[in-house]
Amino acid sequence: MILTTGRPGRTLLAMVVGIAVFSIPAASRAQGLGLEEDETQVESEAARRFRELTDPDAQADREKDTLKPPFEFYRTQVAPFDVLTYVKPNHWVALTQELQANNFDYRGQLRTAPVPLRDMPRAVDFRRDVRLPEGEPMRLSWTAFLPESYKSLEISLVRPGALRPDDATEAPLLPLQTHQMLVVILGKDPMAFDPWKRYQAVIPATTDPEDQQLIERRSYYRLVIPQDPDEVNLSAHPLTWTTISHLIWDNYDPNSLNVGQQRAIVDWLHWGGQLIITGGPNSSIPALADVESFLAPYLPGELSGETITLTEEDLLDLSADYPPPVWQDVLESNRVIDYSGFLPTQEPTRYGDPVPIDLPPDRPLVLTGLSPIAGDVSWITDARGRRFGLERRVGRGRILMLTFDPKEAAFQRWRGNDTFVRRVVLRRPEDRWDPTNATDTSMLGGPELSWYRLLARDLDPAQPPSEGNRVVMAPYGMTSSVDPLDELPGAPVASWLDSARLPALARDTLLKASGIEVPGAPFVLRVMVAYIVALVPLNWFVCRFVLRRRELAWVVVPLLALGFAGAVERAAAIDTGYDRACDEIDLLELQAEYPRAHLSRFSVLYSTGREDFSIGFPGDPTALALPMNARLTIRGEQTTQSSWQATPGPQLLDFRVEPRSLAMFRSEQLVDLPGGITLQGTAEGPREIVNGSGLELRDAVLVDVGVEPGGRNRFSTIGAIPAGGVVTLPGPEASFSEYTGPDPAEEAGEGPHWADLSGFLGPLASYNWGRPEDAGELRLVAWSDGPMPGQELRPGVDRHRGVTLVVAHLRYGPPPSPHSRSYTSYEPKPVDQLRQAR
């Protein structure tokens, strides 16, 4: 008998045979890999499709998947926060988007909506390339910049060249005030630091501690407590750390951080970050001091192997040094306060009587013994020399190692801990409010709350425009339309502002050096008036009375328009001898004995035709770039859009330069150098400067900051220092107290002839911020011919000129003492009085 099957039967038989055929090689491969004990067979693509067609459960799962949207957007994060998306205007941030493609693999871009830049007709969207495997949740990070406070930011998925996005989400944003800084907690139990949020160390004394809305706006610091201590949202991009002032390291494994995060911490430290490492029985000091640790070269000490046990009696000296603060509203409601402990030269401040640290007899405080591993360290001690901390400078910043655990219950109960945290841990200056004035609402500004500085941004930072505080004129004077408690300090720290002093100097110098004067509004107005006069009255008069044919006026109109167009083109044209050119002024800032440098570029582009440039930084993921306000715009000018692409390589795309016009952009990056510029020798013997930067330094001057009367700087001329060269410093007799830049007579013949550098070298050498952490600074100011490498322009330019300004911070003084007048106006009372009060 011959069995026959219809067409559907043959199809089914073929699929069954196919399953058998495809399953044999899979089993053979499994045996070849030593997996023969695993009886699970590898399902082929044909078998999977057959199962989906015949298995009801598989069909139901497939139908369920088809009901899902193509893309699912989950959480949007702003580092270092997990949930709250706080953004400070004029700072770069690290955005992270969690999302998933459900129905297919996706390749495209993740980008923000265009963000208008301040005071110029340009907008920038911030994007990165994405690859989303089907059904796999992804976390994607990239950098973005917001010049103003926004309530939300649109983030979309789009394919290159597409007219519409494939999907989008709206990320809510919260404003971080200009003066507010972040304190990040790294630890296994970060919630133990939650009581610090209510300390006067992080909230101005003039703020009502019960008014949460006011605290939100006026607080000095915002504690960042991770939800999951094992997965902290720290950015690997060092230039997105500008809003972080302190990092609390509490029993945290350094290996939990990736290499990028570790390098970002070290960079942040050298430019002013403050790292506090807690002690105690479970301290992470042994792991950090290990030779393999990324922080080991910078620590002030290591475990000595000994421990010290202190009782409540032993801690009376510490209690006497740090009395609890008093809030302004409490001071007003209860004016009975003993001012006998205040310095006679100071007005009474708002401290109460010292209170002892309440230690149970059976639970003494255990101090971890530390031994210094560097010579430039300072101890935190009480009046009897008991050691509660060891610290040292790291570049501009510092590392403090506490010898005890600040999470101890006794310290959490101690009301003087508020003052200890402010003066020792945060090293925050004392509030300057007047306790006798109930209406005083004064606050500290950003530069007093953070040591972090980037010279290119902070040489003389401009005040950012106010958003919300309006001043109105009254008949008899000026009054504020907002409550005094809503007025906030506007002094910024590390803000990206084109109106700051150094960008403004670079803009003026580059525009002058270009030799190109772009016609401004007066020129356009004169041309328009002349054209209208020639078009109407003059044209009609000539045709009516000279040619005696009025109808010819219509014929003259197009000829007149073409003639004026040619005349304007010739009047505005400049024969430069090249089609495209770029001039740039770079600032290279180095920290003591550190081979990485912060590089800021200020560049101007010129083109004879309309060009869209791309500015790339191959191989440097730390680079950032934005259009810069050249102050050449005309009211009503059309807004042009550019794109900042973070990955796969950072680059500013579609940067438009109009015909025969100028356009400016600025960029920053952290670059690796062959070595640093270091100071060798001691104060007693001869001192030398070693130039390991790989640059030939010219017109170098040594600046001893704040040693002259009145806090002025003292200068010593060094001259030229070749790359790899060693120069002996001159004696004190060769120094002087006034400096305005290099001698023009000596500078002639060396160049650069196209740019006047005296306007830069003078301010870079003369500035003195006057902060306690700046005391003892010694820096070198010089310049090097030519721009720094690493920036790529497409299309290329016919002429590229540049000069690099160099500022090397050779030395900083020790960390300022928490007992200095900047941090306290309180004179400790004798311990006997505190003992009697018990």
UniProtKB/TrEMBL annotation:
Protein name: Uncharacterized protein
Domain of life: Bacteria
Alphabetic keyword roster: Membrane, Transmembrane, Transmembrane helix
Chain segments carrying region Disordered: 811-838
Gene3D superfamilies, alphabetized: 3.40.50.880
Transmembrane segments annotated in the record for this chain: 523-542, 554-573
Provenance organism: Tautonia sociabilis
